[in-house]
Design brief:
The protein is of the alpha/beta class. The chain contains 12 helices and 13 strands.
Length: 337
């Protein structure tokens, strides 16, 4: 459904020197610099998949989304959505996609929500019968009825996000681009929107690209993620593979009878681990030992800890997805350097 191959996007930036002299220089003899926002980004998405598209701020996510939606034209590379090139015949193409930007709205501020949908119906040329059945489905999934007669400006953030998702789905798009759809929302509203996205995806086989910084969104909605950093692919695969390949850091949490002698230096020397492979934090007698299980198996770490002190309680935790992704970001930065 989505084919992105070797996408590259360059922007020209004018470099201005300080002061009045610099202003004149920039006006008559501007110095240009090429900024690469996306560099050889490649991924493919089959029909009906929810793909998590993630990366740190400034990684190039929005640039890639804008190329996929046809707003920007790639400097190099090719993208096709359902066999169509987004930049060609835009009017026909946008009828097949829906886009939601979490910090922007496509709704008319002073119009009641019901009238906003009527306007969008005419823009997308949706016939009366399809519009009626579509609104019934969206009402059921997103629970719009309670505020559908209210002006958009009176809606809460959670209501507006649900209304925006409904607006993007009104014409039954084959592909839905969601950019931070749960940003700023409370836990209950977030859960409602996630349930709605899953239901839309399951019942209509809508392909979804989800851009988010909320790790919970990724874990609950996505089986696969594509991660980019500094405009380049960093990872493309399933969450399960990500945990298997990069989830070596474990946490040993225990309460000791005494904290005497339990130092990071003692653990490191006794286990012969480098600084990056071991970290210890404690609050009085409560300890958290983060360690690289590929260098020190869990059983050996348990045996060594129990040989040092008597413990009242002990447990081992796997690395969570947030920590794994943070490590990947750091690896990408180190590779770039």
């Amino acid at each position: 459904m989505i084919y992105a191959e070797h996408l590259r996007k360059e922007f020209k930036k004018t470099i201005k020197e300080p002061g009045l002299k610099g202003s004149f220089k920039a006006l008559f003899r501007p110095k240009k610099e090429i900024v690469v926002a996306a560099d050889d980004v490649t991924f493919h998405v089959p029909k009906g998949e929810i793909l998590g598209f993630i990366g740190p701020n400034g990684a190039g996510k929005s640039t890639v989304i804008k190329m996929l939606t046809g707003i920007l034209t790639p400097t190099k590379g090719e993208c096709r959505i359902n066999g169509k090139i987004p930049q060609n015949n835009r009017k026909k193409y946008v009828k097949e996609i829906g886009v939601v930007f979490g910090q922007r709205t496509q709704l008319w501020w002073d119009l009641p929500l019901r009238e906003t949908y009527s306007v969008l119906k005419e823009i997308y040329e949706v016939d009366d019968k399809s519009f009626k059945s579509r609104m019934a489905f969206l009402n059921e999934v997103l629970e719009l009825e309670a505020f559908i007669s209210s002006p958009v400006r009176t809606l809460s953030l959670g209501q507006r996000m649900r209304a925006d998702i409904a607006a993007s789905m009104l014409h039954n798009p084959k592909v839905l681009f969601l950019d931070e759809p749960t940003i700023g929302l409370d836990v209950v509203v977030k859960d409602n929107i996630r349930q709605a996205i899953m239901k839309i995806n399951k019942e209509e086989q809508t392909t979804v690209i989800l851009t988010t910084h909320d790790i919970s969104d990724i874990e609950l909605l996505c089986d696969r993620i594509v991660m980019i950093d500094k405009g380049k692919n960093v990872y493309d695969g399933s969450l399960k593979e990500l945990k298997q390949n990069y989830g070596q850091m474990r946490e040993l949490v225990f309460e000791a009878e005494s904290s005497s002698g339990l130092t990071e230096e003692k653990f490191r020397k006794g286990l012969k681990l480098e600084k990056d492979d071991l970290e210890i934090k404690n609050d009085k007698n409560n300890f958290t030992v983060r360690f690289n299980s590929s260098k020190m198996p869990v059983g050996d770490m348990l045996n060594y800890t129990l040989s040092l002190t008597k413990v009242k309680d002990i447990s081992v935790k796997d690395a969570d997805i947030e920590e794994i992704i943070r490590c990947l970001y750091r690896q990408g930065a180190d590779t770039d350097e």
